[in-house]
């Protein structure tokens, strides 16, 4: 949800419809009651705190178990997911250390990353090589198990191939 606000004298120059003497701020869902209701519903859910606990637990579980799968397969990879002390997802880096900057990221074996992601997709788990998977409230521990089973199969294929 996004909000635009400011001092009254500044905001008086903004409008939702086209006028010659004002700045038009518009969008497909700008100010639409459904968008506002959805944003407020999201904030209500986030205030409950369940989302954060759930995501933290599953993302940590996924990170630790995925790292173990790489280690057991003997494939050099560092799985990351924590940002500012909060684990919200997991991401394999085909390198012996976690990247600290874009130079580190681009020095990784990106072909292995691409092959891993394609293998995961072939096993029914969508992993884009351009963005870390994220955990949502809809995910369960069974989803993590399914992802790890697919990862083990892909890693065995990578190791033998």
Topology:
Elements: H1 8-11, E1 14-15, E2 23-24, H2 33-48, H3 50-73, E3 78-83, E4 86-93, H4 102-106, H5 110-122, H6 141-160
Parallel strand pairs: 1-2
Antiparallel strand pairs: 3-4
Description:
This protein has 161 residues and is mainly alpha-helical. The chain folds into two domains: 8-48, no CATH class; 50-160, Aspartate Aminotransferase, domain 1. It is 51% helix and 11% strand. It contains six helices and four strands, in the order H-E-E-H-H-E-E-H-H-H. A two-stranded parallel ribbon has the order 1-2. A two-stranded antiparallel ribbon has the order 3-4. A hairpin with a 2-residue loop joins strand 3 and strand 4 (86-93). The longest helix is centred in the middle third of the chain and has 24 residues, at 50-73. The protein is elongated. The termini are far apart.
Distance from first to last alpha carbon = 46 Å
Percent helix range? 40-55%
Q: Which strands sit side by side, in order, in the main sheet?
A: 1-2
Strand proportion, as a percent range, falls in 5-15%
Number of helices in the DSSP assignment: 6
- Please tell me how large the radius of gyration is: 21 Å
Number of domains: 2
The average pLDDT value, as a whole number, equals 85
The total count of strands amounts to 4
| The CATH superfamily title of the largest domain | Aspartate Aminotransferase, domain 1
Structural class based on helices, strands and sheet pairing:
mainly alpha
By CATH, the topology of the largest domain is Aspartate Aminotransferase, domain 1
Which CATH top level class of the largest domain fits? Alpha Beta
